Amino acid sequence: MNRSFSNLNQDSLENLFIRKKLVLDELMLDSLAADTTLKTIGNALYESGRFDVVIPVHRNLPNINLSYATKSPSLNLAQVKQICTEFKTDALLSLENFYENVNTSYQVGYERITDIGTTRQYNIIVQVAYHSNWKLYQPAEKLKVASFEVSDTIFWERSGNSLQETYEELPTIKDALISGAIENGQSLSGYISPGWQEQERNYFITNNSEADRALAYVKSNYWKDAEKIWMKFSTSTSSGFRSMIEYNLALAAEMNGDLKVAVQWAEKSFKSKYSRTAEEYIKLLNKLLNEKPLLN
């Protein structure tokens, strides 16, 4: 942050916009919004369960002569090592620049209600466009650097018959800036921290009442208990029935975190009786098995 940044007072800022009837062409840089985007990315990285995060109290590298839109100069290996050593971290994430544009639209229209007359209709839009550049430094024998650019827009639109009530349903300009900063930080976390991805799995209903007792445990996510029931039928002489049981045991093994055993059961199911479901499941399990070292 350079000297152009300040913690803009919420009421003063709002009054300024009101006096100008939401039409204002002026550069204002909010330090609280810039700090909020740092705290947001810090919280998001920590909550992913993969990172510990340090945000220094004295975190600003002063760039007095730089414009707010200019990227900060890149750090060298010695600087990164010094900071990482001081705070006992493995990497350094640097916010190179951050700025937001607030755009507003205010319109008055007329809506016919009866043949007697019309009523006014007010429409207000507040739009925040945020932009930031980041660098992720990893100190090694040679400095590893990854660059990220985040840019997007959020907006609020309200309509009503009363100007005052319509206006009061919108966030203040200060709150809009903070919301943009939060969105900015959360957007960046998607580039760095892992996230959950929903997937679907199939299992067989065998129509054997004893074997299908396991399904109650499946629905409660008690895979060990389901596995115990299915295991009793894993040596059945009926190849079709055995194939379904083996497939279900493969699923239980995957849910219990043992991909190698899951592949073994899936391959047994495929050999006992061919099914396209088992064939596709084997491919999927092998893909997950190959990705496991990367995830670890």
Ordered list of secondary-structure elements with their pairings:
Blueprint: E1 5-6, H1 10-19, E2 29-30, H2 31-47, H3 77-87, E3 92-112, E4 118-138, E5 144-160, H4 163-168, H5 173-192, H6 214-219, H7 223-231, H8 239-255, H9 259-272, H10 276-295
Parallel strand pairs: 1-2
Antiparallel strand pairs: 3-4, 4-5
Helix pairs in contact: 2-5, 7-8, 8-9, 9-10
Q: Can you walk me through this structure?
A:
The protein is an alpha+beta fold. It folds into two domains: 5-192, no CATH class; 211-295, Tetratricopeptide repeat domain (Serine Threonine Protein Phosphatase 5, Tetratricopeptide repeat, Alpha Horseshoe). The chain has helices at residues 10-19, 31-47, 77-87, 163-168, 173-192, 214-219, 223-231, 239-255, 259-272, 276-295, and strands at 5-6, 29-30, 92-112, 118-138, 144-160. Helix 2 packs parallel to helix 5, helix 7 (223-231) packs antiparallel against helix 8 and helix 8 (239-255) runs antiparallel to helix 9 (259-272). It is flat, with a radius of gyration of 29 Å. The model has no long low-confidence stretch (mean pLDDT 89).
